[in-house]
Design a protein that fits this description.
45% helix, two-stranded antiparallel ribbon
């Protein structure tokens, strides 16, 4: 039996190229990857998490990290946090 990976089932690279065309301006922060933005939004909707809880759940769960396309687990207290605003736009920033 052949096992498919998520990259084989969903053409992330092609979708990412199309998604990137939406962010052509030079102002503002750099857009986060589509898989991270979409994954975080789906997790928040599915489980009814608040913005902060969504971030904490992703940071603490390697399965959710993989689902969001992150390359490795976030161990310990992460240096970055994210906020999902009313329009479901993810903004990641470094806490000082």
């Amino acid at each position: 039996m052949y096992k498919f990976t998520s990259k084989q089932m969903i053409p992330w690279d092609e979708l990412e190229k199309e998604y990137a065309t939406l962010f052509t301006g030079k102002n503002g922060q750099v857009a986060k990857p589509l898989r991270l933005a979409l994954g975080a939004m789906l997790i928040q909707i599915e489980y009814g998490y608040s913005d902060e809880e969504t971030v904490l759940q992703i940071q603490g769960n390697p399965y959710l990290q993989f689902f969001c396309g992150l390359s490795g687990p976030a161990l310990g207290r992460p240096k970055k946090d994210a906020v999902i605003d009313k329009n479901k736009n993810i903004r990641i920033f470094v806490k000082e």
